[in-house]
DNA sequence: TACGTAGCCATACACCGTATGGCTATCGCT
DNA sequence: AGCGATAGCCATACGGTGTATGGCTACGTA
C-alpha cells in the first residue's frame, strides 16, 4: 500500500482527528492548518486528503468527536431544577475545555447535526418534568441552549468574574438560578 | 500630495470604513480582504496601510461604526419591563443587519471597549429600576447580554422559527418574557 | 504473473496579510 | 526662488494558506 517513507504505519482517520483536535486545543482553530497537521503527523500535506475530504469536513468531524466527549450527567430521580443545573455545568465544562472550537461551532452551525443525541436527549425529559408542553419543548430547548451558550461565551470573554474565578462560579450559578426561575409559566 | 493616479481624490478613513463595512455586509467578514478592498477603492493594496494600521484594526473600527448605528430606544417614563424589551429588540435588529460582523465580535471581544457607551448606558438605569442593587448591576448586565446574544445567535443558526419568521418573533418574545420573569429576586 | 488500486508525494496555482523601500507632488520655511 | 520635509501612493517580495493535478510505489487478488 505504499506506506509513508517516514512513518511506519499508514494514516488512520482517528489519528488525524485526534492530532487535529490536539492542535486546536493548544492554539485555537486558527492554529490548525493542513500543512502543520501534516508536519506533526510527519506526512506530506496532500496525503491527508486521502482520509479527509477537506479542511471544513475535518473540523466538522473533530467537532463531533468533541461533542461525543461531553460528560452527560443525569440522575432520573432528582428534581428537574437540579438536573438542569447539572446539565448547564457539564456544558460549561466542555466549553472551557475547547473554547476555540466552540466559538467556531457558534459561527458555523452546519457542523453539528440537529437536535439528536447528546444534550437534547437529556434536556427534553428535564423540560417534560418541568411541565413544558410537548409541542413547545423544541423551541424551549433552543432558547435555553441559546441562553447558556451566550452565558458561557460572555464568561469566556472575561466578563462575570474578571479577576476572581470563584466569583465567575457564583455568577454562573445565579444566572442558572435565573433561568430556573424564569422557566415555569406564571 | 501625490494623489492616486487612478482616482481623483485621496483616500479617507471614512471611505475605507464604509466600503469595508459594505463588503462585510455583502459577503461576511471572511469576504473582506485588503486586496479586494483596495480593488474596490481602485487603489494599490498597500495604500490602505497609510490610513489603517492593519486588518484587525480596520475590522475593529468598522465594528465601532456599526455599534454607533445601534438605534437605542429609551422611554424614561415607561416601566422597566417594557424598556428592557425594547432594548432586546433593538439588539436583535442590529444583529440581523450585520450577522457576520456580530459573530466576529463574539469571538474577538477585544474589538469593542468595555461597558461604556451604547447599550450599557441604557441598560444600567433599567436594571436600577428593576431593583438590582448597584454592586450587582455590572454582572447582571453581563449575564443579560450573554442571554440575549446567545438567543440571537441561536436564531441566526436557524432554530426558533425554522420556517416561519413570525414564529421566530413569537419565540423571541416569550424568551424575553422568560428573562423578565427571572430577573427579580424572589 | 498481471492488474487494480490504496496510499503517498512533488509540484503548482491562486489567494492572503504585510514589510520594505522608492516615487512624486505639495507644503512651509528660509 | 530654492529646498527639505512629508503625505500619499505604488511595485516588489516573503512567507503563509487550501487544494487541484498527476505520478510513483507496493500490496491484495485473480
From TrEMBL, chains A, B:
Domain HTH tetR-type: 10-70
Xref: Gene3D superfamilies: Tetracycline Repressor, domain 2 (1.10.357.10)
Pfam families in the cross-refs: TetR_C_1, TetR_N
PROSITE patterns for this protein: HTH_TETR_2
Superkingdom of origin: Bacteria
Species of provenance: Nonomuraea rhodomycinica
InterPro entries reported for this sequence: Homeodomain-like_sf, HTH-type_TetR-like_transc_reg, HTH_TetR, Repressor_TetR_C, Tet_transcr_reg_TetR-rel_C_sf
GO molecular function terms noted in the UniProt entry: DNA-binding transcription factor activity; transcription cis-regulatory region binding
Keyword DNA-binding appears in the UniProt entry: yes
Positions of the DNA-binding region: 33-52
Keyword Kinase: no
Keywords: DNA-binding, Transcription, Transcription regulation
Listed name of the protein: TetR/AcrR family transcriptional regulator C-terminal domain-containing protein
GO BP: negative regulation of DNA-templated transcription
Amino acid at each position: 500500500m505504499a506506506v509513508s517513507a517516514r512513518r511506519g504505519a499508514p494514516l488512520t482517520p482517528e489519528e488525524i482527528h485526534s492530532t487535529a483536535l490536539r492542535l486546536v486545543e493548544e492554539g485555537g482553530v486558527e492554529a490548525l492548518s493542513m500543512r502543520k497537521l501534516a508536519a506533526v503527523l510527519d506526512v506530506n500535506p496532500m496525503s491527508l486528503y486521502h482520509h479527509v475530504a477537506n479542511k471544513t469536513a475535518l473540523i466538522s468531524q473533530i467537532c463531533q468527536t468533541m461533542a461525543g466527549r461531553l460528560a452527560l450527567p443525569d440522575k432520573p430521580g432528582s428534581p428537574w431544577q437540579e438536573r438542569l443545573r447539572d446539565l448547564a455545568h457539564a456544558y460549561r465544562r466542555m466549553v472551557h475545555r475547547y473554547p476555540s472550537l466552540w466559538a467556531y461551532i457558534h459561527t458555523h452551525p452546519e457542523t453539528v447535526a440537529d437536535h439528536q443525541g447528546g444534550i437534547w436527549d437529556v434536556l427534553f425529559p428535564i423540560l417534560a418534568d418541568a411541565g413544558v408542553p410537548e409541542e413547545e419543548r423544541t423551541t424551549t430547548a433552543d432558547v435555553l441552549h441559546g441562553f447558556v451558550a451566550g452565558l458561557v461565551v460572555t464568561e469566556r470573554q472575561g466578563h462575570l468574574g474578571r479577576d476572581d474565578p470563584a466569583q465567575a462560579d457564583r455568577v454562573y450559578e445565579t444566572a442558572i438560578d435565573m433561568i430556573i426561575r424564569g422557566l415555569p409559566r406564571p
